[in-house]
Amino acid sequence: MVKDSLGYITHGSKAYHIWMIFLTAIMLIGMYCYSIQLDQGLSATGMTDRVSWGLYISNFTFLVGVAAAAVMLVMPTYILKDIDFKQAVLIGEGLAVAALIMCLAFVVADMGGPSVLWHMIPVIGVFNFPSSMLAWDVIALNGYLFINITIPLYILFQHYQGKEAKPKIYIPGSILSVLWAVGIHLVTAFLYQGLQARPFWNNALLGPRFLASAFAAGPALIILVLAVIRRFTEFKIETKTISKIAMIVVVAAQINMIMLISELFKEFYAPTHHSESAYYLFFGLDGKTALLPWIWTAIPLNLLATVMLTINKLRNNPKVLYICCFMLFLAIWIEKGFGLIVPGFIPGPYGVIAEYTPTGVEIGVTFGIWAMGAFVFTMLAKTSIGIELGKLRYRKKDKVIVSETA
Amino acid sequence: MGEKKKWYKLDFGSKTKESAASSCGCGKTSGGCGSHQGPPPQKDEYTITADEFDKAVEGTMVGETRKDGFQQVFDVKMDRRTAFRKLTASLLIGAGAVQTSCSVVAGEETKEKAQIDWEEQFKGNYKLMTQEERNATVDRLVRSYQLRKKENIKMSSTDASKDVLFGYAFNISKCQGYMDCVSACVEENNQDRNSEMQYIRIHEMKDGNGFKFDEADDNYYHEVPAEGHFYMGTQCFHCDDPPCVDVCPVQATWREEDGLVVVDYDWCIGCRYCMAACPYDGRRFNWSKPEVPEEQVNKNQHYLGNRMRKKGVMEKCTFCIQRSRSGKDPACVEACPTGARIFGNLLDPDSTIRWVLENKKVFRLKEDLGTDPKFWYFMD
What we know:
Number of helices of chain A: 15
Oligomer: heterodimer
Distance between the termini of chain A: 19 Å
Shape of chain A: globular
Helix content of chain B: 25-40%
Order of helices and strands of chain A: HHHHHHHHHHHHHHH
Number of domains of chain A: 1
Radius of gyration of chain B: 25 Å
Number of domains of chain B: 2
Strand order of the largest sheet of chain B: 10-2-11
Structural class of chain B: alpha/beta
CATH topology of chain A: Formate dehydrogenase/DMSO reductase fold
Largest sheet of chain A: none
CATH topology of the largest domain in chain B: Alpha-Beta Plaits
Largest sheet of chain B: 3 strands, mixed
Strand content of chain B: 5-15%
Radius of gyration of chain A: 22 Å
CATH class of the largest domain in chain B: Alpha Beta
């Protein structure tokens, strides 16, 4: 199977090759930037003692949500036996795997001492479990990665051999992954929520809002990906599938909106000392306004997309749907990334307002990791589509790659 | 092999473990890998030749207590943990042997440096080390410094004494903002000069506004005391319930018995979670390689204190552990020209700090967070 799929992913149309070369180039640039960072230390980034987490942790937080969102497809397909989703779910799980790999890459990129990361491996290192939420997160993310690799692998492998996958084997795994997905995002939220030092994060709504925004942004991305797959491959994805996922996006986006209103009300109706971070984020403090353009892009986009998606007529128009999904994805990326992590540090514990601007190296590494995620996802999706379409089968070896077209 | 050790160590678990400190990654104690020549010669007494070893083994071959050859390694009852550790050890040993023995052109010193670096890279968490292991790593670090900089340093690994709990008090009325404490701290604790890292921040506040930290200036460059201002210093408060310790994923930071919150710089992975968790801005990160001019290095060091750090690790105020554990006041206390800083043992009823706590109206910062700092403020 490995050999076949290797053959399969290295062949494709011109557009496919250009896409992969493009991603490889960006990954190489990212690796170059990372080598600079390794050499100089994290001083190559824009982070300082005042704002000690930045672009990397922002992206990590957001991507955990994307990974968790795969569950929104798993649940109806495997557990509620909704056939519509079956084609989408393998793509969703592929997306989860790619997102998790990106998460881990972002965390590693953020470490001051990547060479001693083995200290974190249970048994040979010292694992501060259950005290540290970061230790929980390591378990949650790696466990989720494992589940999301094994389930699709089992199903695809069975299909590859021309057999049917046994529900008895994959349904328990799917149920576990559903619970686990909620878990990874909650645990990641608790990572911030548990810090009494940072009032902006120390907020009971953080976890639930993480989930709501994740279940909007993740499936929005899946819709976009499915649209691309529908366009460029023979893989049949029914409009019904997409409109069902769109329904999930709408509901999640609406809940997210309600929570946003609740948060804003709490911060601005009776502002306390603890509302300063929110003030900084939305209005700036002491003339320091670096985040204003970001958040005031995110909020209108979010609002507009949610309203437009709520209207059935607009949602059912594929073009509008795709645009809305893109807007929503972008808005949540800003809000749950930059808009969440950076204001947590501003103002500092004693009220000092020091701003953060990512450096070129940091941006380069970030793009590199995103490209890596896209690369991984493209390979996974191409293999699974190949198997699902029946092009990739364990039969006479010579016929396997002949039917190649995509 | 100590059963209670929780970390991985380059120790093959064979009967030669007594000389583990002087043996190298190849696991042999005689001949072979080429990294055994050189000092310290007295260790040679402990190494034995293969013949002697065989005889010793035969002599004790009663029952199954002693085993021969590979059985020594493989026929040992072990749980999964030790098994895994040993598997890793053998991998590392292989690589280590290659690393040290293949470098034919390298000189003695280069080999020794490589050997030290290797053992340092894979040593355990200081908190969980036995006293011998602590001494061994201190010896390695001292030797490493000697090899690299041709200078001798003194490094201690003194433990907390019984019946000692350190506390600190700051007299707001006395502080005039001279910042002598800051420069004394930087010099004492070998902080990076390039980034001008400072553990202590002095906040200049306006009279009549009360404690308004957000309106204070902690980075002033003018003559002090400035008219109509007062000063307040902050640093690590050595909380009794420190949030930074709870969040560390690898237990690289902990509260010592005498109340000092310390960092094992070699175990820290640089995730900076502790920095996000600290409500008092008490922690600093080495964003690049810390540099101190050789003539300014304080050579009186402690493993958990002011020894040289590397890039990508956390550090913080330790109440000058190298001084306080040998009966001296921290550098900031000693340097303060106004006597605003008071340090001492909270468990000693006759100490100055106890007198202050009992006779002054003391308060602490952000008490509502439940961190229980051991750093009090008071006024005359």
